[in-house]
Design goal:
The chain is an all-alpha fold. Among the domains are: 90 residues, Alpha Horseshoe (Serine Threonine Protein Phosphatase 5, Tetratricopeptide repeat), CATH 1.25.40; 117 residues, Tetratricopeptide repeat domain (Serine Threonine Protein Phosphatase 5, Tetratricopeptide repeat, Alpha Horseshoe), CATH 1.25.40; 83 residues, Alpha Horseshoe (Serine Threonine Protein Phosphatase 5, Tetratricopeptide repeat). 76% of the residues lie in helices and 0% in strands. The chain has 32 helices and no strands. The longest helix is centred in the first third of the chain and has 21 residues. The radius of gyration is 30 Å and the shape is elongated.
Length: 582
C-alpha cells in the first residue's frame, strides 16, 4: 500500500503527518484543510471546530471558513453556521475572481441554512458575474462554474416549488438546463413539476430526452406511464410499468404508483396479477412491508377498508412505508365508508344503518384509534407538519360536537391564511362549515377550489371538494351544475364510486330510472359490490325500470353479505318477485 493510501485508510495517522507538515509550512492552506477534514472523518467534530476557529483567528487560512460553516451545517448548529457565513460576507464589494467565487459559495450555503430564496437569488447574481469573468480569464474552469450555476438555479427552483410558486420554479429549472443541458437530475425535477402542473406535453418531452440517453431510467419510465394514463393510452401506460415490474416484481414503490393509476383509469381489476407476480418472485413477499402496503391500497380502493387496515398495519412500523401506511389508516378510521364528509344528500337516506347506537359507538372508537395513530406520525418537512395539523383537527370534526368543530375551523382558517390557495385547508374549512350548517360559507370556499387548476399532489382533496360542492348544488336543485362537477371527478378518477352514486341520485330524481340504474351499476362495480346502500339503490332502480330479474339478483347479493338489511327484502325483493309472477 502506498503512503498516500495508508493515510487515506488511517485518518489518525494522517492528522499527525499533516500537523508536522503544517509546522514546516504554516501558510499551506491545503494541508490545513486536510487536517480539518481528517478530524471530521474520525468524528472528532468538537476538535475539528476548535481547530478551524483557531486557524481562522491566526488570520492565515481564510478559506477554511467555508469548511467550518459546512461542518456546522452538517451538525445542525445553524445559528453558529449563520454567524460564520455572515462574518465571511461582511466586507466591501469585491471584483477579484477568487473572492467573487468564494462569496458565491458562502451565499449558497446561507440559502440552504435559512431556506430563503432571496439568498439564492443573490448567489445567482454573483455566480453570473463569476461566469462572465471565468470565460475571459480562466476558460478551463468554465464547466465547473457552469455546474455551480446550474446547482444554484435548481436550488431556487426547488424552493419555489415547495412554496407552490410553480411558474417561477419552471423558469429556474430551464435556466439550470441552459448551464448544464444534459443534467438528468434537473430534467427529472422539471418533468415532475410539469406533471404536477398537468402540462402533459412538456413533461413527455423531458422524459423522452432522458430515456433517449438512459433507457432504463426508472423515474422517467414511471413518469411516462403516468402520462400515458392521463392521455387515456392505457395499453402504453401498463407497458411502461410492466417493463419495470418484470425486471423487478418486488419494486413496491412502482407497484403502489401503478395501483393508484389503475384506480384513476378505472382498471383496478388489473391489480391482482401484479401482486401475484411479486408473490411468485419471492416466497417472503407476504411478509414484506412494501407488499402489504400495496395490498392494503388495493383493498381500500376496492371497498374493503377493514382488510386494507389489516395490511397497512403490517407496514406500519417500517421506515420506508410506515408513515404513509399510518396516514392511510387514519383516513380509513375517520371515514371508513368513504362518505362525503359534510355532505347532506345521502344523510337521511340510509335510515336502516344510519343512526344506530352501534354505528355511533364504532365511530367514536374509530376516532380514538385515529388519535392514537396520529402520535406515530413524524413529518420531515414543513408541509408534512401542516398536513399533520389538518389531520389532527379532522379528528375534532369527526366528533360532530359544535365546540370541537369550531376549534378545528379556527385552525383550518389560520392555515388557509398562511398557506396561499392550499386546497386541503380550504376543503377542511368547507367541511367544518357544512357540519356547522353554514352552507353559504362552505360553498364560497369550494367555489374557490373549483376555479383552481388540478394537480396530482392534491388530487384526492380536489375530488372531495368537487363532490361536496356537487352535494350542495343537488340539495338546492341545481342538477346541471352538480353534473359538471361530477363529470370532472370521473375525468380524473374513473373509479370514483361517489360520483356515480350522485349521478344516479340526480337521474332518479328526474325519474330517469334506466339512466339512474346505469350510474348505480358503476358505483356498485367500482365499490366491489360491497356497499349495501348502493346495492339497495341499484335494485330499486332496476325495479322501477322493470328489470325485475336484475333487481332480484342484486337483492340476493346484498342479503348474502348483510343478512340484517331487511328493508331490501320488503321494499324490493318481494315486489320484484310478485311482478315476475303477474
Amino acid at each position: 500500500m502506498s503512503p498516500t493510501q495508508n493515510l487515506h485508510h488511517c485518518p489518525e495517522l494522517a492528522i499527525e503527518v499533516y500537523e508536522q507538515a503544517l509546522k514546516r509550512n504554516p501558510k499551506d492552506g491545503a494541508v490545513a484543510s486536510k487536517i480539518g477534514k481528517a478530524l471530521v472523518k474520525t468524528h472528532n467534530y468538537a476538535k475539528a471546530i476548535n481547530y478551524y476557529e483557531a486557524a481562522l483567528k491566526s488570520g492565515q487560512q481564510n478559506f477554511l471558513r467555508y469548511d467550518l460553516a459546512e461542518l456546522l451545517m452538517k451538525l445542525k448548529q445553524n445559528e453558529r453556521c449563520e454567524r460564520v457565513l455572515h462574518e465571511a460576507l461582511t466586507h466591501d464589494p469585491v471584483n477579484e475572481l477568487p473572492l467573487l467565487t468564494e462569496d458565491c459559495r458562502y451565499l449558497v450555503l446561507l440559502a440552504k441554512i435559512q431556506s430563503k430564496v432571496n439568498k439564492n437569488d443573490e448567489a445567482l447574481d454573483v455566480q453570473a458575474k463569476v461566469l462572465k469573468r471565468v470565460q475571459l480569464e480562466q476558460p478551463d474552469a468554465v464547466p465547473m462554474q457552469k455546474q455551480l450555476a446550474a446547482e444554484i438555479c435548481a436550488e431556487i427552483a426547488k424552493h419555489c416549488s415547495n412554496q407552490r410558486g410553480y411558474e417561477r420554479a419552471v423558469k429556474f429549472y430551464k435556466e439550470a438546463l441552459v448551464y448544464c443541458e444534459s443534467d438528468s437530475k434537473v430534467m427529472l425535477e422539471l418533468a415532475q413539476l410539469y406533471l404536477t402542473l398537468d402540462d402533459v406535453e412538456a413533461c413527455q418531452q423531458q422524459c423522452s430526452v432522458i430515456l433517449k440517453n438512459d433507457q432504463v431510467n426508472e423515474a422517467a419510465t414511471l413518469m411516462m406511464a403516468d402520462l400515458m394514463f392521463r392521455k387515456q393510452d392505457y395499453e402504453q401506460a401498463v407497458f411502461h410499468f410492466q417493463q419495470l415490474l418484470e425486471r423487478k416484481p418486488d419494486n413496491y414503490p412502482t407497484l403502489s404508483r401503478l395501483i393508484d393509476l389503475l384506480r384513476r383509469a378505472g382498471k383496478l381489476e388489473e391489480v391482482p396479477r401484479f401482486l401475484e407476480m411479486a408473490e411468485k418472485h419471492s416466497p417472503r413477499a407476504k411478509f414484506e412491508p412494501g407488499y402489504n402496503y400495496c395490498k392494503g391500497l388495493y383493498l381500500w380502493y376496492t371497498g374493503e377498508p377493514n382488510d386494507g387496515l389489516r395490511h397497512f398495519n403490517k407496514a406500519r412500523k417500517d421506515n420506508d412505508w410506515g408513515q404513509n401506511a399510518v396516514y392511510n389508516m387514519i383516513e380509513i378510521c375517520l371515514n371508513p365508508d368513504n362518505e362525503t364528509m359534510g355532505g347532506e344528500v345521502f344523510e337521511n337516506l340510509d335510515g336502516d344503518i344510519g343512526n344506530s347506537t352501534e354505528k355511533q359507538e364504532s365511530e367514536q372508537l374509530a376516532v380514538r384509534t385515529a388519535e392514537k395513530l396520529l402520535k406515530e406520525l413524524k413529518p420531515q418537512t414543513p408541509q408534512g407538519h401542516v398536513q399533520l395539523r389538518i389531520l389532527e383537527h379532522y379528528c375534532y370534526l369527526a366528533t360532530k360536537q359544535k365546540a370541537n368543530v369550531e376549534k378545528a375551523l379556527g385552525v383550518f382558517t389560520e392555515i388557509a391564511n398562511t398557506e396561499k390557495d392550499y386546497v386541503p385547508a380550504l376543503l377542511a374549512m368547507a367541511t367544518a362549515y357544512m357540519i356547522l350548517k353554514q352552507t353559504p360559507r362552505a360553498r364560497n370556499q369550494l367555489k374557490r377550489i373549483a376555479k383552481m387548476n388540478w394537480n396530482i399532489i392534491d388530487a384526492d382533496e380536489f375530488e372531495k371538494s368537487w363532490l361536496l360542492l356537487a352535494d350542495i348544488y343537488i340539495q338546492s336543485g341545481k342538477y346541471d351544475m352538480a353534473g359538471e362537477l361530477l363529470k370532472r371527478c370521473l375525468r380524473h378518477n374513473k373509479s370514483c364510486c361517489k360520483a356515480y352514486e350522485y349521478m344516479g341520485y340526480i337521474m332518479e330524481k328526474e325519474q330517469s330510472f334506466r339512466d339512474a340504474a346505469m350510474n348505480y351499476e358503476m358505483a356498485w362495480k367500482y365499490g366491489n359490490q360491497t356497499n349495501p346502500t348502493i346495492g339497495y339503490k341499484l335494485a330499486f332502480n332496476y325495479l322501477k325500470a322493470k328489470r325485475h330479474v336484475d333487481a332480484i339478483d342484486v337483492c340476493h347479493k346484498v342479503l348474502d353479505a348483510h343478512p340484517n338489511y331487511p328493508r331490501i327484502r320488503k321494499d324490493i325483493l318481494d315486489k320484484a318477485r310478485a311482478a315476475l309472477r303477474s
